[in-house]
Write a structure and sequence with these properties.
1181 residues; alpha+beta; eight-stranded mixed β-sheet; globular
């Protein structure tokens, strides 16, 4: 610590629950050891598809920001580092990744509170924004003087990847032929800054540099990466070629990507700087799908009054994609499932939207990066906002407003359920600031600890807040702000040798708000404080009464600001009142305690006077006013019609008012609100209003679709009073069937998109919807005791449905539909037949469809059925569930589905809740998903859903308990537990407690004093989630232990009894209960276990020739081979020498530095995040 020159605050109070490790208590930040990278070369000279391996090197040009630079920290995960050189001198280094296994020796802890704290600490320990990294390189002492002169350093690192589980995804189809003929390809992927998974770098969005990228691949392959392709060089034998890319615009390593495969290439005919890449035989689909991309370019460049920032743009379509769209500097990687032919209508808008999102992120997200994680909301907000403008222009105002309502409803529902989404978290400066979101079961300090659902809602809220800012300052000023940010960044990017200027390419919350203030001159501080600096939404309840004497509308607006996820709103709110004489807007002020507001009416009630009624859009219509109150001029009322508050509104008005609103209000949001409200009013009048809307061709198709579903619900509610033919059938016959023969459906001319989406007459989508309709008609079977259900005794209608589903499923195997939509519907139908008791519940069919090789949508539908089967049956399946292929997207969907439809919850008892399941999930969460941030957070979510924050209740009690009598200083057996037969075990020593966490267990027979293990007894803080129950007034506590009869009691030393008990409750081993056979869980234990086991040590790593550890790093070199096998991620790598003579020479060379390096080694070994203690075995290669 003296060498590092760091000050440590030893008086810092410990946080309650989780004790922050000393390693993280350092006040002086490590940024001093992360100098500025100005240029980086990445060279991948071998990609082996057969072995799924990569070999290459990187070279970083570093400008020291401090004198006497002696440490350089970089990010690198799962890379095997062979050698490191700094300015051609061999450099020693330490590789330590605490996120590989979050909780060491905590196999019996199983406490999510503890895990979340440890995981946050582990991620913080390697956070590049805080100056940390997994790879620490010691600058050779010969170069320290060079650091004084501020000369550049060149850091050269050789590395390889062997079967990477994250960062790079290899797709190698199991068919015959060469790799190119098989369509084998590889692409980079990851959630947030994940470039460290495939090459060493400073993996931060705020660290910009220029790039040179070289990739050597087989001659039949194409390598696509960021920047301009300057040349392609073949080898002498013409079997390989090297692609040379140059990216002169300063870019963060997190925005660098790679894709290699036998791609077919299409140059955009309207913009030659745009190139598209797809897998073999998909070129016709690529041409159609990309035919309108130039229009998106033109739109963004026009509204931003700024040219696209890069000199080229590349789109790559890959199979088994991580997400639909991944944006990187000058290129985007898409799922190949977005491609479609001209025959497919339904996919067209979805693909266009994905392209528009990717291009928006090129401007804000890739070209302009962020200063820190706390500023992420600005980039996501701006890119989402300008994407919304594209949506409005291309698909219309109705589609845009429908999308805004949809996004608002999703976000509000999530916030009310989870307790709030915080856009701009700040940390430090008090206990509340350290954890600004105590209502969440995960930390929001890093993007890598976030729930995926939370991050999706975070993006959603960000663009909604941008829209609120636009409402406040106008769209014109908003676009000027964006243009200013882009102009400054463009100027900065052209400063080739002035890297200090590149900070203009980073946006922060402060700089963004300052730009808004400078451009618009308006203060949006209160808006930011309400929606950005704090979480939660507003929940309004509205009702009204009309005062006929005063001709006044008495409106009451109440708020719920005490429930989870809600906040109090004070400020203006817009109310729109549709009266007989027109539509009138009123702005009310919501004060602290004001509930009631008097709004004067402009109209008088009409009695038998017919007159057209003017609407908000200026249109005048005739209305049948017979349903309304004769004394009131009010037709309908709307609160916050423009959605200018992030809110949920529950408003009470009469059914006829909702019916008028549906029929005559021209805003689609108002119509959708009224459809939702009419579900509660199953009356003939509601039925008529919905039918009228359905038959209006000029009405927005999404509103008509909503009316269909609402009408079906109302018809079901009115079964006893319904008159006439079935509601939906008569409508369908009237709208879509031949007049002369009502049983024959007319051919769809595809002239009207509105009617197409209502009828869905594309062959595969139409047939899939018909199967869904058949499924929805199913009702539970009437079971007769002891009846064996067979096809012969099925109900006639159900048999017809089953035959139709079987026929469609078999036809799909011969003539597959686009995206196998019909198969997906058939699988769901079969599951519904099982759930309703018509056919036996059996998951074997779904397991076969869940296997690798089926289309991803089919696999997800089959897995959904397996998850539902597990929940419904509450028993294990008779045969093993088929093992899934490790496609990150599929595993993510499994975990998400289990979280959404869990087999049990923490509030309910279930035979599936057992120790084996806890074991499986804990391993998955702790070490099995270290290669993918998203999967780890999915596993945390599932663990929380099933077991909550504290230790799972299903874990067994120990065979024996120990009672400490602190008055008599004795430890005696709990008298309620019968002791085992054997030697006298009545009195035991406390030091005989067998420990399983925090400290490596001592060798057998070795006795340790209590104070030698725990240190000062008062120094151990309790772990989170542990609850102690005092037995009686004599201060006896139950402790779970394994007991040895040999040791003696040592209770004489003074100590804090409470801390002592807390400490030992956490670290005691908890054996399983004998005779208990856990119930296996088909979906959880087997589906999730595939390829997600804790990473085993590759024998190749252990067999590599390595330099013996010098005394600086090897003081604790007496480690057991067992430990080195278990903890692969603690490596000291030096240059690999083959001759013993050179080994000894190297060892002697570093001997004089032993004292300094010894201190360094403790800096990496003492962190609970890395699971090491002062006494645990040393790090080994």
């Amino acid at each position: 610590w003296d060498l590092l020159g760091l000050e440590i605050d030893m008086n810092r109070k410990k946080d309650k629950g989780f004790e922050t490790p000393l390693f993280l208590n350092v006040l002086t930040c490590y940024v001093m050891f992360i100098p500025h990278t100005t240029h980086q070369v990445v060279c991948i000279n071998n990609i082996n598809f057969q072995r799924k391996s990569v070999i290459g090197f990187v070279e970083l040009t570093i400008f020291p920001t401090v004198v006497n630079l002696n440490r350089i920290k970089l990010n690198s995960k799962q890379c095997r580092i062979y050698r490191v050189r700094v300015n051609d001198l061999e450099a020693p280094f330490i590789y330590n990744d605490p996120t590989l296994e979050v909780c060491h020796h905590e196999s019996k802890q199983r406490n999510l509170n503890y895990f979340s704290s440890a995981y946050t600490a582990a991620v913080s320990a390697v956070d590049p924004d805080a100056g940390h990294g997994e790879l620490v390189i010691k600058v050779p002492s010969e170069l320290w003087k060079q650091g004084d002169e501020m000369n550049v350093l060149k850091v050269y690192i050789e590395f390889s990847l062997d079967q990477p589980k994250g960062g790079l995804h290899f797709v190698v189809p199991d068919v015959e032929g060469s790799m190119a003929e098989r369509g084998a390809h590889v692409f980079s992927f990851g959630y947030q800054n994940s470039t460290r998974f495939w090459f060493p770098c400073v993996d931060s969005y705020s660290e910009l540099c220029t790039w040179k990228l070289e990739f050597t691949v087989d001659a039949s392959m194409v390598a696509v990466s960021c920047g301009d392709l300057v040349e392609t060089v073949y080898t002498h034998d013409m079997r390989k070629k090297t692609f040379h890319y140059v990216l002169p615009i300063p870019t963060a390593a997190s925005n660098i990507s790679l894709s290699v495969g036998p791609f077919e290439i299409l140059v955009e005919p309207y913009m030659h700087e745009v190139t598209h890449f797809c897998l073999p035989q998909l070129l016709p689909l690529l041409k159609h799908s990309m035919s309108y991309l130039h229009e998106i370019f033109e739109f963004y460049e026009e509204i931003l009054t700024c040219r696209y920032p890069y000199s080229c743009f590349k789109t790559v379509f890959v199979d088994e994609a991580y997400v639909q769209v991944s944006s990187y500097a000058s290129m985007s990687i898409f799922s190949t499932n977005l491609l479609h032919s001209a025959m497919i209508i339904d996919q067209t808008p979805l693909t266009r939207q994905c392209l528009a999102q990717a291009l928006a992120q090129q401007f804000f997200g890739c070209f302009i990066s962020r200063m820190s994680w706390a500023d992420e909301w600005v980039l996501k907000g701006i890119s989402g906002y300008i994407y919304g403008l594209y949506l409005k222009k291309t698909f219309g105002v109705n589609q845009y407003r429908h999308w805004i309502k949809e996004e608002l409803d999703k976000m509000v529902e999530y916030e009310l359920k989870m307790g709030g989404v915080l856009l701009h978290p700040t940390f430090g400066g008090g206990k509340d600031k350290d954890n600004p979101t105590p209502h969440l079961h995960f930390s929001i300090k890093h993007p890598h600890t976030l729930s995926w659902k939370y991050y999706k809602m975070f993006q959603c809220k960000a663009h909604l807040v941008m829209r609120l800012i636009e409402n406040r300052i106008s769209m014109e000023f908003m676009l000027q702000v964006f243009n200013k940010l882009l102009s400054l960044a463009s100027t900065a990017s052209s400063q080739k040798y002035q890297s200090h200027m590149w900070s203009q390419m980073l946006v922060s919350t402060h700089s963004f708000l300052k730009s808004i203030s400078n451009v618009s001159g308006k203060d949006i501080g209160p808006l930011i404080k309400q929606w950005v600096d704090q979480s939660a939404v507003v929940k309004f309840f509205g009702s009204f009464a009309f005062n006929r004497k005063r001709n006044v509308l008495e409106l009451e607006i109440r708020q719920d600001y005490t429930s989870s996820g809600t906040q109090k709103y004070v400020g203006p709110i817009k109310v729109t009142v549709q009266e007989l004489d027109g539509s009138f807007n009123h702005t009310l002020q919501i004060e602290e305690n004001s509930l009631k507001h008097d709004i004067p009416c402009h109209s008088k009630s009409r009695r038998n006077k017919k007159k057209k009624i003017p609407l908000m859009n200026g249109e005048e219509v005739d209305m049948d006013l017979s349903a309304m109150d004769a004394d009131s001029p009010l037709l309908w009322i709307r609160i916050d019609p423009d959605m200018s508050i992030l809110r949920k509104v529950e408003f009470e008005q009469a059914d006829f008012m909702w019916q008028y609103q549906l029929r005559y209000e021209r805003d689609v949001v108002a119509q959708e609100e009224s459809i939702l409200a009419l579900e509660k009013f199953p009356t003939p009048a509601s039925r008529l209003a919905l039918t009228d809307i359905l038959e209006q061709d000029q009405c927005f198709y999404k509103v008509r679709q909503g009316a269909c579903f609402c009408l079906a619900k109302i018809a079901n509610s009115m079964m006893s009073t319904w008159t006439g033919p079935p509601a939906m059938k008569s409508l369908f016959t009237r709208m879509f069937c031949c007049k002369s023969c009502p049983n024959i459906v007319k051919t769809n001319t595809f002239i009207s998109f509105q009617s197409y989406f209502l009828q869905k007459f594309s062959d595969n989508y139409y047939r899939a919807e018909l199967i869904d309709a058949l499924t929805n008609s199913l009702t539970p079977a009437i079971s007769i005791s002891n009846e064996v259900r067979t096809v012969d005794n099925l109900n006639g209608d159900v048999r017809l449905i089953l035959e139709e589903i079987t026929r469609s499923l078999n036809m799909e195997k011969l003539l597959p539909s686009y995206r196998n939509t019909i198969t997906v519907s058939c699988l769901r139908a079969i599951r519904m037949l099982q759930k309703n008791g018509h056919i036996p519940s059996d998951p074997s069919l779904f397991k076969s469809y869940a296997e690798y090789g089926h289309f991803v949508d089919v696999r997800v539908a089959a897995l959904e059925a397996v998850v539902d089967y597990t929940r419904g049956m509450h028993r294990t399946s008779p045969s093993e569930v088929s093992r899934t292929h490790p496609i990150p997207y599929v595993v993510h969907k499994i975990l998400s589905m289990l979280g959404k439809n869990p087999p049990f919850t923490k509030a309910a008892e279930s035979p599936l809740c057992n120790e084996a399941l806890v074991d499986q999930l804990w391993k998955l969460m702790n070490s099995g998903t270290s290669h993918d941030w998203r999967l780890r957070c999915d596993a945390v979510n599932l663990y929380y859903t099933l077991f909550g924050l504290t230790r799972p209740s299903c874990l067994p009690l120990p065979e024996l308990g120990l009672v400490l009598n602190l008055k008599e200083k004795k430890a005696v057996l709990n008298p309620t537990i019968k002791p085992e037969q054997g030697p006298d075990t009545t009195e035991m020593t406390v030091s005989s407690v067998s420990m399983s966490s925090g400290v490596a267990p001592p060798p057998q027979g070795l006795k340790r004093k209590l104070d030698s293990v725990v240190g000062p007894l008062g120094s151990s803080s309790p772990e989170p989630g542990q609850v102690l129950q005092e037995e009686d007034t004599s201060k006896k506590f139950k402790i779970r232990v394994r007991i040895s009869s040999e040791d003696e009691i040592d209770m004489e030393s003074p100590h804090d009894s409470q801390a002592f008990i807390h400490h030992h409750l956490n670290i005691l081993e908890r054996p399983s209960t004998p005779g208990q056979h856990p119930v296996k869980h088909p979906a959880l234990i087997i589906l999730l276990s595939d390829n997600l086991e804790p990473p085993a040590v590759d024998q190749a790593v252990l067999s590599l020739p390595v330099t013996p550890l010098p005394s600086s790093f090897g003081k604790e070199s007496t480690s057991s081979s067992k430990h080195s096998g278990d903890h692969h991620h603690h490596h000291h790598h030096h240059e690999h020498k083959k001759k013993k003579k050179k080994k000894h020479k190297h060892k002697h060379k570093h001997k004089h530095e032993s004292k300094d390096k010894e201190r360094d080694s403790h800096a990496f070994s003492n962190s609970p995040a890395s699971g090491r203690s002062a006494r645990s075995p040393s790090m080994s290669d």
